[in-house]
# Entry
Amino acid sequence: MTRWLITTQGLIAVGVSIVLSGLLVFGGFRLHLVLTEHNPLWWLWIIPITLWGLGIAFIMAWYSLGYSKP
# Structure
């Protein structure tokens, strides 16, 4: 049975993961501006990078809050 385990370490890890995913999204946005230069298919770049960043943030938050333990 899993419980909500909120600790300072978990909150710090969640904050760091959110910041890192935000930097990934911003970096991907800047990269797509450089590579595409007003290409109408910009969403082909930004959507996978955004989902990847959010997925990493979710996984880091999941493990930092103790859900990996049985």
User: Anything to note?
Assistant: The chain has one domain: 11-64.
